[in-house]
Specification:
- This protein is an alpha+beta fold.
- It folds into 2 domains: 8-74, no CATH class; 90-110 and 147-240, Alpha-Beta Plaits (2-Layer Sandwich), CATH 3.30.70.
- Helix content is 25%, strand content 17%.
- The protein contains 5 helices and 8 strands, in the order ββααβββαββααβ.
- The strands form 3 sheets. It has a 4-stranded antiparallel β-sheet with strand order 6-7-5-8. Strands 1-2 form a two-stranded antiparallel sheet. The protein has a two-stranded antiparallel ribbon with strand order 3-4.
- It is rod-shaped, with a radius of gyration of 38 Å.
- The N and C termini lie far apart (84 Å).
- 21% of the residues are buried.
Protein backbone atom coordinates (compact mmCIF):
# COMPACT_ATOMS: atom_id res chain seq x y z
CA UNK A 1 0.00 0.00 0.00
CA UNK A 2 1.38 3.41 -0.96
CA UNK A 3 1.99 5.98 1.76
CA UNK A 4 -0.81 8.52 2.10
CA UNK A 5 0.32 11.98 0.96
CA UNK A 6 0.31 14.62 3.70
CA UNK A 7 -1.92 17.67 3.09
CA UNK A 8 -0.47 21.11 2.35
CA UNK A 9 -1.54 24.19 4.31
CA UNK A 10 -2.21 27.79 3.28
CA UNK A 11 0.69 30.01 4.41
CA UNK A 12 -1.76 32.78 5.36
CA UNK A 13 -4.61 31.09 7.25
CA UNK A 14 -3.33 27.51 7.71
CA UNK A 15 -6.24 25.75 6.00
CA UNK A 16 -5.33 22.51 4.12
CA UNK A 17 -5.52 22.52 0.32
CA UNK A 18 -5.12 20.08 -2.58
CA UNK A 19 -1.80 19.71 -4.40
CA UNK A 20 -2.96 21.40 -7.65
CA UNK A 21 -5.11 24.06 -5.99
CA UNK A 22 -4.07 27.63 -6.88
CA UNK A 23 -6.10 29.73 -4.41
CA UNK A 24 -7.12 29.13 -0.79
CA UNK A 25 -10.83 28.52 -0.48
CA UNK A 26 -10.82 30.05 3.00
CA UNK A 27 -8.93 33.35 2.62
CA UNK A 28 -8.45 33.61 -1.16
CA UNK A 29 -4.64 33.84 -0.96
CA UNK A 30 -2.61 32.56 -3.91
CA UNK A 31 -1.10 29.24 -2.96
CA UNK A 32 2.51 28.20 -3.69
CA UNK A 33 2.85 26.43 -7.03
CA UNK A 34 4.28 23.12 -5.86
CA UNK A 35 5.89 22.21 -9.16
CA UNK A 36 9.56 21.60 -9.82
CA UNK A 37 12.41 22.13 -7.35
CA UNK A 38 10.91 25.30 -5.85
CA UNK A 39 7.64 23.52 -5.24
CA UNK A 40 9.40 20.64 -3.49
CA UNK A 41 11.39 23.03 -1.29
CA UNK A 42 8.27 25.08 -0.50
CA UNK A 43 6.34 21.97 0.46
CA UNK A 44 9.18 20.77 2.71
CA UNK A 45 9.31 24.19 4.40
CA UNK A 46 5.56 24.19 5.02
CA UNK A 47 5.64 20.74 6.57
CA UNK A 48 8.08 21.98 9.24
CA UNK A 49 7.11 25.61 9.79
CA UNK A 50 3.66 27.24 10.02
CA UNK A 51 4.80 30.38 8.11
CA UNK A 52 6.13 30.44 4.54
CA UNK A 53 7.71 33.70 3.30
CA UNK A 54 7.15 32.98 -0.39
CA UNK A 55 9.00 31.46 -3.34
CA UNK A 56 11.36 34.46 -3.47
CA UNK A 57 13.28 33.05 -0.50
CA UNK A 58 14.94 30.29 -2.57
CA UNK A 59 16.72 32.56 -5.13
CA UNK A 60 17.80 34.80 -2.22
CA UNK A 61 19.31 31.85 -0.33
CA UNK A 62 21.04 30.64 -3.50
CA UNK A 63 22.57 34.09 -4.08
CA UNK A 64 23.79 34.21 -0.48
CA UNK A 65 25.43 30.78 -0.79
CA UNK A 66 27.18 31.80 -4.03
CA UNK A 67 28.42 35.02 -2.41
CA UNK A 68 29.84 33.10 0.57
CA UNK A 69 31.67 30.65 -1.68
CA UNK A 70 33.09 33.48 -3.81
CA UNK A 71 34.27 35.34 -0.71
CA UNK A 72 36.00 32.24 0.66
CA UNK A 73 37.72 31.66 -2.69
CA UNK A 74 38.91 35.27 -2.84
CA UNK A 75 40.35 35.08 0.69
CA UNK A 76 42.16 31.85 -0.15
CA UNK A 77 43.58 33.36 -3.35
CA UNK A 78 44.81 36.53 -1.61
CA UNK A 79 46.48 34.47 1.12
CA UNK A 80 48.88 32.84 -1.35
CA UNK A 81 51.39 34.31 -3.80
CA UNK A 82 50.57 31.70 -6.42
CA UNK A 83 53.43 29.37 -5.51
CA UNK A 84 51.82 27.76 -2.49
CA UNK A 85 53.63 30.05 -0.05
CA UNK A 86 51.44 31.84 2.44
CA UNK A 87 52.08 35.57 2.62
CA UNK A 88 52.13 37.05 6.10
CA UNK A 89 51.98 40.83 6.25
CA UNK A 90 54.53 42.44 8.50
CA UNK A 91 52.83 44.75 10.99
CA UNK A 92 54.34 48.21 11.07
CA UNK A 93 51.97 50.12 13.33
CA UNK A 94 50.72 49.02 16.76
CA UNK A 95 48.50 51.66 18.33
CA UNK A 96 46.47 49.79 20.94
CA UNK A 97 46.52 51.89 24.13
CA UNK A 98 47.89 50.08 27.15
CA UNK A 99 49.41 47.26 25.08
CA UNK A 100 53.15 46.68 25.44
CA UNK A 101 55.05 46.66 22.19
CA UNK A 102 57.99 44.33 21.68
CA UNK A 103 60.42 46.15 19.40
CA UNK A 104 62.49 44.21 16.89
CA UNK A 105 66.05 43.93 18.13
CA UNK A 106 68.41 45.74 15.82
CA UNK A 107 72.13 46.03 16.00
CA UNK A 108 74.30 48.99 15.34
CA UNK A 109 76.30 49.00 12.09
CA UNK A 110 79.90 47.87 11.99
CA UNK A 111 81.06 51.45 12.33
CA UNK A 112 80.12 51.34 15.99
CA UNK A 113 82.81 48.74 16.70
CA UNK A 114 85.44 51.31 15.76
CA UNK A 115 83.94 54.08 17.90
CA UNK A 116 86.67 55.82 19.94
CA UNK A 117 87.05 54.57 23.46
CA UNK A 118 87.25 57.07 26.34
CA UNK A 119 90.76 58.43 26.61
CA UNK A 120 92.64 58.14 29.86
CA UNK A 121 94.99 60.92 30.79
CA UNK A 122 97.50 61.01 33.56
CA UNK A 123 98.47 63.86 35.83
CA UNK A 124 100.81 64.53 38.71
CA UNK A 125 99.29 65.55 42.02
CA UNK A 126 101.01 68.28 44.01
CA UNK A 127 103.33 66.82 46.58
CA UNK A 128 104.61 67.99 49.86
CA UNK A 129 108.26 68.94 50.07
CA UNK A 130 110.33 65.83 50.25
CA UNK A 131 107.45 63.46 49.39
CA UNK A 132 107.62 61.30 46.25
CA UNK A 133 105.45 62.36 43.34
CA UNK A 134 102.21 60.39 42.79
CA UNK A 135 100.70 59.80 39.35
CA UNK A 136 96.96 59.00 39.05
CA UNK A 137 94.78 58.19 36.07
CA UNK A 138 91.81 60.41 35.37
CA UNK A 139 88.87 59.69 33.05
CA UNK A 140 86.96 62.58 31.46
CA UNK A 141 83.18 62.86 31.91
CA UNK A 142 81.00 61.32 29.18
CA UNK A 143 80.43 63.61 26.21
CA UNK A 144 77.17 65.60 26.14
CA UNK A 145 74.16 64.49 24.08
CA UNK A 146 75.13 66.78 21.19
CA UNK A 147 71.65 68.21 20.97
CA UNK A 148 69.68 64.94 21.12
CA UNK A 149 66.01 65.20 22.09
CA UNK A 150 64.87 63.90 25.49
CA UNK A 151 61.33 62.58 25.75
CA UNK A 152 59.27 65.21 27.65
CA UNK A 153 58.62 64.16 31.24
CA UNK A 154 55.08 63.03 31.92
CA UNK A 155 54.13 63.20 28.23
CA UNK A 156 52.06 60.52 26.50
CA UNK A 157 52.33 60.54 22.73
CA UNK A 158 53.59 58.75 19.63
CA UNK A 159 56.97 58.48 17.99
CA UNK A 160 58.83 56.74 15.19
CA UNK A 161 61.05 54.02 16.68
CA UNK A 162 64.12 53.90 14.45
CA UNK A 163 66.05 51.12 16.22
CA UNK A 164 65.97 49.20 19.50
CA UNK A 165 69.26 48.11 21.03
CA UNK A 166 69.54 45.84 24.11
CA UNK A 167 70.83 47.56 27.22
CA UNK A 168 73.97 45.46 26.98
CA UNK A 169 74.95 47.40 23.83
CA UNK A 170 75.40 50.54 25.93
CA UNK A 171 73.97 54.04 25.73
CA UNK A 172 76.94 55.27 23.70
CA UNK A 173 75.97 53.02 20.78
CA UNK A 174 72.34 54.15 20.97
CA UNK A 175 73.35 57.82 21.14
CA UNK A 176 75.58 57.33 18.12
CA UNK A 177 72.64 56.00 16.09
CA UNK A 178 70.47 58.90 17.26
CA UNK A 179 73.12 61.39 16.10
CA UNK A 180 73.25 59.58 12.75
CA UNK A 181 69.48 60.05 12.48
CA UNK A 182 69.80 63.73 13.33
CA UNK A 183 72.50 64.24 10.70
CA UNK A 184 70.22 62.51 8.20
CA UNK A 185 67.61 65.23 8.80
CA UNK A 186 65.17 63.28 10.97
CA UNK A 187 63.39 65.53 13.49
CA UNK A 188 63.74 65.34 17.29
CA UNK A 189 66.10 62.36 17.34
CA UNK A 190 66.87 60.97 20.77
CA UNK A 191 67.23 57.93 23.03
CA UNK A 192 64.96 56.65 25.78
CA UNK A 193 65.10 53.61 28.08
CA UNK A 194 62.09 51.39 27.36
CA UNK A 195 61.85 50.14 30.95
CA UNK A 196 60.69 53.59 32.07
CA UNK A 197 57.56 53.46 29.87
CA UNK A 198 54.65 51.08 30.42
CA UNK A 199 53.75 50.87 26.72
CA UNK A 200 57.21 49.63 25.66
CA UNK A 201 58.88 46.26 26.16
CA UNK A 202 61.55 46.66 28.86
CA UNK A 203 65.26 46.06 28.41
CA UNK A 204 66.12 48.28 25.43
CA UNK A 205 67.62 51.60 24.42
CA UNK A 206 65.03 52.97 21.97
CA UNK A 207 66.32 55.32 19.27
CA UNK A 208 63.38 57.51 18.29
CA UNK A 209 62.48 60.43 16.06
CA UNK A 210 59.66 62.87 16.79
CA UNK A 211 57.28 63.58 19.65
CA UNK A 212 53.79 63.46 18.14
CA UNK A 213 50.32 63.93 19.61
CA UNK A 214 48.49 61.65 17.16
CA UNK A 215 49.28 58.38 15.35
CA UNK A 216 48.66 60.07 11.99
CA UNK A 217 51.47 62.55 12.60
CA UNK A 218 53.85 59.73 13.50
CA UNK A 219 52.87 57.66 10.46
CA UNK A 220 53.56 60.67 8.20
CA UNK A 221 57.22 60.61 9.28
CA UNK A 222 57.80 56.91 8.58
CA UNK A 223 58.46 57.32 4.86
CA UNK A 224 61.28 59.78 5.56
CA UNK A 225 62.80 57.48 8.19
CA UNK A 226 62.67 54.49 5.83
CA UNK A 227 64.37 56.43 3.03
CA UNK A 228 67.18 57.76 5.25
CA UNK A 229 68.75 54.62 6.57
CA UNK A 230 66.15 53.17 8.96
CA UNK A 231 64.06 50.71 6.91
CA UNK A 232 62.64 48.95 10.00
CA UNK A 233 61.23 52.08 11.64
CA UNK A 234 57.72 51.79 13.05
CA UNK A 235 55.22 53.83 15.07
CA UNK A 236 54.93 53.26 18.83
CA UNK A 237 52.88 54.77 21.64
CA UNK A 238 54.94 56.12 24.53
CA UNK A 239 53.24 56.39 27.90
CA UNK A 240 54.38 56.27 31.52
Amino acid sequence: MSEEKKPEYCPRCGVAYEPLQEYCLECGARLPANRGLVGVLAAAWQRRFPWYPGDWVWPALLFLAVALVATAAAVAANGSDGSGTTIVAKPTVTLGPGAKQTPPVTTAPNTLSSAPRPTVTTGTLPKAPGAPSTTVATTPAPPPGHGLTAWPAGTTGYTDVLESLPLSAGRRAASSRARTAKLAGLPQAGVLVSSAYASLHPGYFVVFSGVYRTPAEAVAGLATAHSRGFPDAYVARVTH
